[in-house]
């Protein structure tokens, strides 16, 4: 399975972790269904895997961030015509639970390409039949 996407860094205000997270890009939900990533707390390692492969769960250094909530900032549509609603609409902001201390306030502090993550000293492991394809950002 060939995957592509971006690396996001979650910064935890509680324990100071800099946790990398892979955001998979896919044409459909089907394309990324079951794919997950796990990272360390020092933005050094990131592993991509399919959830049916349990290997990575035995790695003590890597953990997966869980989505805490999607904060929907869109205003109530009540009483608004569609044009006004569209002007006011903002995409939802995702927050994650810190996998290291369970704080719920971590947000994405930085987003980069996989190549930039590696250039900064990080390592990306693809586990099982996953192959990371570098996207258009690299060409
Ligand atoms: Zn934390």
TrEMBL record:
It comes from the Bacteria. This is Uncharacterized protein. It comes from Erythrobacter fulvus. The lineage of its organism: Bacteria, Pseudomonadati, Pseudomonadota, Alphaproteobacteria, Sphingomonadales.
